[in-house]
């Protein structure tokens, strides 16, 4: 999830776990502890863009990492005189909880989270929440703000934190229900169209859990479509994309390409654009693909021009958006 969500959630957990012992300092410590796994962003200062993709949500998002750092951090907190007294066991539990929640929540996005590093490079990805979803985050943000401005002896503090976390948890469950609905519709539509496929995934479009992007791997490439939980017609329209693996013959052993293939989990196509060889990771969707089935992909990497790959994930996320595109997006969410 986005950093602000982790901060707000960390503050709410801090209030519930250690508010009595630490007062408002529990909000700050909870927010910081919840954000620790994202310290991997510093790697971007010296890694290439392709290497940085695997470093982010890599080892610092593994179970081993949180087990290794929880006790030393708790020990430091116990010995820091600036903090009110809280025993080592309680500190360790507090930090472990914050770190585990961060890892758990990140796994619901498309990016993938390396829970099992360094023993396995497999990345856990449930594909049920967009990386920034206001409906998931707003209650947490409101609660964190109230906890910050109201006095520590206010009777409603715990109620605010519990309510905010409950709302977000219910929304998370709702996203999984919607995903199951979309998966069922996808399988029925593919069967009705007599489409043979290897695998598929569904993932939400930006900021919602109602309109979903569907990527189906076939023998020759991929089929991509969009489905709203409010769609009335049963059939899903798919656009075919060739994988174009042959375009990689001359650079198949290139280090960046090896990393990109691993990062994309095999969901990629290769295209040529203005003389540049482009690697597209399909998991991040298309630029307004629900209104233009042939739209370019959000994630694109210039294989033979690596210096052009700054801000790799962010640069295409909201490309082509304007007020008209926003209203079209809302209309598509409401269904056909």
Could you describe the 3D structure shown?
This protein has 336 residues and is an alpha+beta fold. The chain has 2 domains: 3-174, no CATH class; 193-333, no CATH class. It is 44% helix and 15% strand. The chain has 9 helices and 7 strands; from the N terminus they run αααααααββββαβββα. Strands 1-2-3-4 form a 4-stranded antiparallel beta sheet, with helices on one face. Strands 5-6-7 form a 3-stranded antiparallel beta sheet, covered by helices on one side. Strand 1 (199-204) and strand 2 (211-217) form a beta hairpin. The model has no long low-confidence stretch (mean pLDDT 92).
Any chance you could write out the topology, listing elements then pairs?
Layout: H1 3-22, H2 25-35, H3 49-55, H4 63-79, H5 88-106, H6 134-149, H7 157-192, E1 199-204, E2 211-217, E3 221-228, E4 238-242, H8 255-264, E5 268-273, E6 276-286, E7 297-302, H9 323-333
Antiparallel strand pairs: 1-2, 2-3, 3-4, 5-6, 6-7
Helix pairs in contact: 1-2, 1-6, 1-7, 2-5, 3-8, 4-5, 6-7
Which structural class fits the helix and strand makeup?
Answer: alpha+beta
Number of domains: 2
Which overall shape is indicated by the principal axes computed on the Cα atoms?
A: globular
Specify the biggest β-sheet. 4 strands, antiparallel
Approximately how much beta-strand content do the residues carry?
5-15%
Helix percentage range:
40-55%
Give the gist of this structure.
The chain has 336 residues and is of the alpha+beta class. Helix content is 44%, strand content 15%. The mean pLDDT is 92.
List keywords for this structure.
single chain, 336 residues, alpha+beta, 2 domains, 9 helices, 44% helix, 15% strand
């Amino acid at each position: 999830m986005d950093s602000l969500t982790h901060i707000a959630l960390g503050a709410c957990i801090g209030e519930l776990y250690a508010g009595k012992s630490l007062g408002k300092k529990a909000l700050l410590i909870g927010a910081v502890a919840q954000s620790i796994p994202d310290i991997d962003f510093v790697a971007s200062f010296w890694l290439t863009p392709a290497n940085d993709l695997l470093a982010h949500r890599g080892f610092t998002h593994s179970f081993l990492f949180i087990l290794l750092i929880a006790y030393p951090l708790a020990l430091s907190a116990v010995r820091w005189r600036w903090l009110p007294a809280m025993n080592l066991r309680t500190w360790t539990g507090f930090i472990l909880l914050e770190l585990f929640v961060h890892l758990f929540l990140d796994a619901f996005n498309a990016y993938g989270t390396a829970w099992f590093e360094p023993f396995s490079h497999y990345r856990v990805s449930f594909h049920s929440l967009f990386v920034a979803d206001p409906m998931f985050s707003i209650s947490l943000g409101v609660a964190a703000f109230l906890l910050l401005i109201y006095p520590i002896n206010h009777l409603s503090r715990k109620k605010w934190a519990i309510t905010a976390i409950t709302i977000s948890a219910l929304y998370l469950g709702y996203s999984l229900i919607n995903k199951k609905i979309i998966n069922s519709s996808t399988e029925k539509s593919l069967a009705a169209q007599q489409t043979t496929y290897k695998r598929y995934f569904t993932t939400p479009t930006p900021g919602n859990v109602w309109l979903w992007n569907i990527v189906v791997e076939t023998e020759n490439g991929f089929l991509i479509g969009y489905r709203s939980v409010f769609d009335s017609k049963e059939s899903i329209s798919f656009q075919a994309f060739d994988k174009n693996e042959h375009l990689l013959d001359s650079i198949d052993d290139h280090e960046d390409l090896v990393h990109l293939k691993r990062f994309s989990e095999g969901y990629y196509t290769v295209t040529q654009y203005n003389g540049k060889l482009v690697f597209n990771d399909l998991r991040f969707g298309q630029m307004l693909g629900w209104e233009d089935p042939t739209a370019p992909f959000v994630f694109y990497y210039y294989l033979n021009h690596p210096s052009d790959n700054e801000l790799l994930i962010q640069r295409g996320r909201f490309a082509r958006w304007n007020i008209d595109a926003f209203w079209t997006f809302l209309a598509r969410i409401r269904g056909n």
